[in-house]
Write a structure and sequence with these properties.
The protein is mostly helical and 88 residues long. It has helices at residues 5-41, 44-63, 69-87. The protein is elongated.
């Protein structure tokens, strides 16, 4: 454990940020799994709604710097491709 006051405070803030980031990532993974489940089921309307939610969560995570913006873009593109393939 740190002895310097600023280092102690930094350790506390890092822990809070880690827990916040973990919550965002967990929620993001849940939304992506919901989309995958809807896509596997073949329900187009349910998949579209799930895609919208997942895309929103990806954008929010990228805005908060929890994940990189290019990573969010790549994942959204992959989900969109799955949705497009379903429509065909």
């Amino acid at each position: 454990m740190a002895n310097i006051k600023s280092a102690i405070k930094r350790a506390k803030t890092n822990e809070k940020a880690r827990l916040r980031n973990k919550a965002v990532k967990t929620n993001l993974k849940t939304e992506m799994k919901k989309f995958q489940a809807a896509a596997a089921e073949g329900d187009m309307t349910k998949a579209q709604e799930a895609y919208n939610q997942a895309a929103k969560k990806l954008d929010q995570a990228a805005a908060k710097n929890v994940i990189h913006k290019n990573s969010a873009s790549r994942k959204k593109s992959s989900l969109a491709k799955t949705l497009k393939d379903m429509a065909e």
